[in-house]
Amino acid sequence: MEHSAEELALIKKFQEQEITGYYVYQSLAKRQKKQENQKLLNSIAEDEMHHYKVFRKLTGYDVSPNRWDKFRYKMLASIFGPTFSTRLMEKNEADDQILYSKLAHLPEMSAIIADEEKHEKELIGMLSEDKLNYIGSIVLGLNDALVELTGALAGLTFALQDPRLIALTGSITGIAAAFSMGASEYLSTKSEKAEGKHAVKASIFTGIAYIFTVVALILPYLLLNNEFLSLAFTLVIALLIIAGFNYYYSIVKDEKFTGRFIEMVSLSMGVALLSFAVGLVLRKFFGVETD
Q1: Least C-beta-crowded within 10 Å: which of 25, 85, 186, 197?
Q2: What ranges in the chain are assigned the alpha helix state H?
């Protein structure tokens, strides 16, 4: 069958994607400790190779895997875990469904599309990772730190007007709150007896997420001499943390990004604004003045 130039370009694009996916899935499978995860990832890798061979028959030549994508997905798996990397890869392939439809008249495409849909369903809940089992604990630590500390720093900024003093006070407040949140999560998880969750691990994930956020938000006050500029950078960092985490969450949980992002931003920035106003009022009430 003769193919148009547009069809050949699409087939070559998909051919490259499939051979790249083959090597990435194989690499991810080797890193898995659980045999069921290894078996599934290797099975998907073999499907990708089969698809590659189908496309090779249509183009009549071999193509090399995309080196950048190979490196990118492996790096993402190392940093964020294999679930994030595999779901992102499948999501990017799913985005090509419209392009697949342009080749729907080819008899080979129906089986390939069915395989890709199967991959997406099988990947849901496929991998067992601590960071996914305890993602609720991570959300608790991040969200509480963002809401409480942005608010506290905003209030302290106007009340104290001294970057180093604000950093010191914020650090003490944040670290104490991290210990408190970790202990609360330990007691909560232990009392709930949630399946697959350990109270100690849950408290550690909550505490680490909280302390990470504390350090990130206080950093501008240690690096800059202007407290109001420091607050501006702190709010920007808070937005970046919220965006980054919600993007990760939306990928691994296959949920919408926008709704959760707007909700967390509204809470954090709303509390910060209210706390800034409280700092102004308390400063005047107590008659605190700086030189």
Answers
A1: 197
A2: 5-30, 35-59, 67-80, 82-94, 97-101, 109-123, 130-133, 135-160, 163-192, 199-223, 227-252, 257-286
Q: Does a structural domain hold residue 208?
A: yes
Q: Are residue 227 and residue 171 in the same domain, yes or no?
A: yes
Model confidence pLDDT, tens digit, residues 26-80: 998 888 877 887 888 888 889 889 889 988 988 888 999 999 999 999 898 888 8
Does 90 map to a domain?
Answer: yes
Residue 10 included in any domain: yes
Residue 106 forms part of a structural domain: yes
Kindly state the greatest CA–CA separation across the chain.
Answer: 86
Rounded Cα distance, 214 and 149, in Å: 7
CA 273 distance to own-chain centroid: 27
Predicted TM-score (pTM) of this structure: 0.72
Q: Is 1 exposed, middle or buried (0-12, 13-18, 19+ CB in 10 A)?
A: exposed
What is the full DSSP assignment across 101-152? HTTTTSTTHHHHHHHHHHHHHHHTT----HHHHTHHHHHHHHHHHHHHHHHH
CA-to-CA separations, 80 to 178, 206, 236, in angstroms, rounded: 23, 17, 23
Residue type present at position 241? I
